[in-house]
Amino acid sequence: MSDFVRSTASKYKFGAHLSTAGGISNSVTNAHKLGCNSFAMFLKSPRRWVSPDYTQEEIDKFKKYCTKLGYDPLRDILPHGQYFINLANPDLEKAEKSYASFLDDLKRCEQLGVGLYNFHPGSSLKGDHEEQLSQLAAYLNKAHQETKFVKIVLENMAGTGSLVGSDLADLKTVIDKVEDKTRIGVCVDTCHTFAAGYDISTETAYDKFWKDFDDIIGFKYLSAVHLNDSKAPLAANRDLHEKLGQGFLNLEVFKLIASSDFLTGIPIVLETPQEQDVGYGHEVKLLEWLETYDDNKDKEEFTKKLEELQAKGEKSRKEHLAKFEKKKTIKRKAAATNSKGEDIAERISRSRVKKPKM
Ligand SMILES: [Zn+2]
Ligand SMILES: [Zn+2]
């Protein structure tokens, strides 16, 4: 892996979701090699319910690397929970199983001294949505009592309806029911936001989204950002991450991010689909370049980069746009041919197979 020099000049904590192969402490050294100012990782296997405990040696190594390489585990590291955790599941047995793994994750954070923990707020499935949001909040309250300091960060989602957090109002409802407001936050994923139907692809839309975010949830809860372009178009409800600049968001949006003062001080973590982690090193450098962008001298280079990246993603964008148009046509036909068409269309969209993403 080639080395990237970590920026001390950037006022943003640009980083990436990194591999822990060989031990959790390797995420720290990987972050440093890639020039990240923040990072994310899984605390255990994202595919299994139970994983072996950390050894004391591994915990010590993780902490030692953080000190040596200059990462503040309370603020710079944002582990990601397992995708199958669903604390909003109306099937209580399954919700309890999720809670056990969720609590285990929070305890792992505290063993490592990590102060933030990001997870997907789950789905109310066929249950009453409001009731399941209350259940989710009750689990968060319980988790706060069973741990000491880690802040739980809810990620916004790309879907609709029963998928909690696709609507920002869901997150507000949950936060309202959480007793310890100092230990709850929100992570805004740029791909999920756009796919859920919140346009952020132009400067005006971007500003409006953040105003809405502040009105609905409040900036004080903004604890992290996941930085991804989107393979799918606006409101497609597809969680399909794309490399920066190659999707429907394009480089203009990431330039806006890299000049948004309200995003300083929180982890801004890439989850783009890279063949190798070295791709993240390049994207962090791209973001740092966007941060220093000067209209007078960089415009030409910016336009060149923007066009190059858009060209790379063109084929994929066309394919996903065609799929989206086809789905819309099916929905319209279902609505037209049946008096309960709306319900059927809703059911079709809800029952579609979802491939969970970060
Ligand atoms: Zn994400
Ligand atoms: Zn995620």
Automatic annotation (TrEMBL):
Provide a GO CC annotation, any one. Answer: mitochondrion
Q: Ranges of Basic residues compositional bias?
A: 325-334
The source's domain of life comes to Eukaryota
| Location of the region described as Disordered in the Swiss-Prot/TrEMBL record | 313-358
| GO MF | DNA binding; DNA-(apurinic or apyrimidinic site) endonuclease activity; phosphoric diester hydrolase activity; zinc ion binding
Required co-factor(s) are: Zn(2+)
Q: Which InterPro entries does the UniProt entry name for this protein? A: AP_endonuc_2, AP_endonuc_F2_Zn_BS, Xyl_isomerase-like_sf, Xyl_isomerase-like_TIM-brl
Residue ranges occupied by any Xylose isomerase-like TIM barrel domain in the UniProt entry: 29-285
Q: Does this UniProt record's set of keywords contain Repeat?
A: no
**GO terms of biological process kind:** base-excision repair
Ranges of Basic and acidic residues compositional bias? 313-324, 340-349
Q: Which CDD domains match?
A: AP2Ec
Q: Which keywords appear in this protein's UniProt record, sorted alphabetically? A: DNA damage, DNA repair, Hydrolase, Metal-binding, Zinc
Task: Output the NCBIfam families linked to this UniProt entry.
Answer: nfo
**HAMAP family assigned to the protein according to its UniProt record, in alphabetical order:** Nfo
Q: Can you tell me which family this protein belongs to?
A: Belongs to the AP endonuclease 2 family.
Q: What is this protein called?
A: Apurinic-apyrimidinic endonuclease 1
